[in-house]
Amino acid sequence: MDVLKKVPVREQDPKIRATNFKEVCLGYNMEEAQEEASRCIQCKNPKCVAGCPVSIDIPGFIKEIVNGDVETSFKVLGKYSSLPAVCGRVCPQESQCEERCIRGIKGDPVSIGKLERFAADWAMEHEIKPEMPKEFNGRKVAVIGAGPAGLTCAGDLAKLGYDVTIFEALHEPGGVLVYGIPEFRLPKDDVVKKEINNVKALGVKIETNVVIGKSTTIDELMEEEGFEAVFIGSGAGLPKFMGIPGENANGVFSANEYLTRSNLMKAFDNSYDTPIIAGKKVAVVGGGNVAMDAARTALRLGAEVYIVYRRGEEELPARIEEVHHAKEEGIIFKLLTNPKEILVNENGWVSGMLCVEMELGEPDESGRRKPVEKKDSDFIIELDTVIMSLGTSPNPLISSTTRGLNTNKYKCIIADEETGLTSREGVFAGGDAVTGAATVILAMGAGKAAAVGIDNYLKSK
Question: How many CA within 13 A on the CB side of residue 140?
Fold first, then answer.
């Protein structure tokens, strides 16, 4: 064993996986996990923990894998995370915990995410449940949204003894975990549902098909139904568009709609009747994880797929692993390219996209070099489908129906970063509803912080 090298993780062959929706990464077995875990040098002052938004005791759970005690490893994880099997799959560990791993100074960092996944999967296979709270205090807290922020906040509050009810607008809990992230990255029945059931096992109740702002309001929950505090973790579901000519043509989708049809409504499965336009030649505009998910979904539905992104490869915001997988599967990257117009045929359907080549100028306010058009570099890509993946913003329904709840110019709820407290007493918020579209683990970190904030608030009453 070379301690400077990660133990390779098994994956589906790219040619085979490009034709199915089964999980790409197959994970470690016991022997591989113990070998990888033994690479951890058990630092006395571990830098990796500071890189984790939910502050998992990383050396602690890894040490138990080395010892062969995976149940205890899972229990260590469970003290900090309600969704370890999810996080092990979709967290950007390479820019968080693994980036700070001391082992990574002279070699590969420890595969913290893959080890987290291993421990969580092992626990699910052996039906190990999280530890129940020792006592309940009977105080009611409402959580809006059953996505990563809401599930984390609810789970942490339940562990503290609170009577928690989650109100979810869709017909299934999970938020972006079920509507946004494809099956080949995050299996719904084998992973997401089981982790949600673990949250329920803590005593959390989940009511689906409840649209806060329509079905009921936050004011009614607090004034009529006896909830002493509310956490808003409703996410950011409103898609953004470019505003270019032709964007209203048939065959133009937001990535949000496209992925929701495929993931939550099972359009990729022929046994379901959910309509989806597979397309023969598809362009996905954008360079984030959602763009990669949309592109790889379209590929599996039989299309030739382009990623169109106005900056270069170094500036792609998507995870390195996702870009690598997309390239392996045959996605064509049109980098330093920006759409100017979507071309439409006489029947109102997409026929192509007029693009322009870009070059990188000086850094903008985000710190990334600003793309500038190259003169006389227009060209056309022939297409029949365009998927816009330009980010999302929060739906203003909740903020517009809640007295005293302040938002910023982007319709994001204004909340204290450390406690989640909003301008309305007893109302807390976190995740994409506050920050705009971000990562699953950052939403979980916000939910965790808000649970502490709510506990302190209610104890002080």
Answer: 12
